[in-house]
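QA checklist item 7 of 12: single-chain prediction sanity check.
[x] sequence parsed
[x] length recorded as 158
[x] structure emitted
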Amino acid sequence: MMNRSYRILCSLPAPTAFERVKRLLSIEGVRYTFADLSLRSTYTPILLLNVQPVGYTRKNWVGINPFTSVSSVEVRCEPKDDTTTIVAVDIDRRRAFMQVAFWIACFFLAASALPEPAAALLVFAGSIVAWSVEMEFVGGYLIKKEISDYLEAPGSGK
């Protein structure tokens, strides 16, 4: 529930793919330690205000830096053959879970002013939307998509 794992197949040699992932994480404000062809984040940016530049990116179609919503990221590049690499991405989503809990608390607070059926519907629907957006979309899919797009982009090696 808290962790999500993805495996991305890319048509690059493992060292090249690893360098691209390191470059992407550096651009997005993630600090990390690395050894061989694996890395583990030591710091992911924390977004306190919506006006902070670290919260935004041009690397995905939404414009949100998804690394601000997760606690840590671990990436391993496993060579499949000379020209193909499997990039394993493990995401710790505890921070996203805390954001979901915050939104659910806000829905409960707003629901206290509503009649019972509407209050239950607000809390239920709001919880599903918060989970879907924070945990599944931003804390999962968007990170996977950003990494795979950066690996496939022809100009990202510069």
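[x] summary fact logged: The radius of gyration is 18 Å.
[ ] second reviewer sign-off
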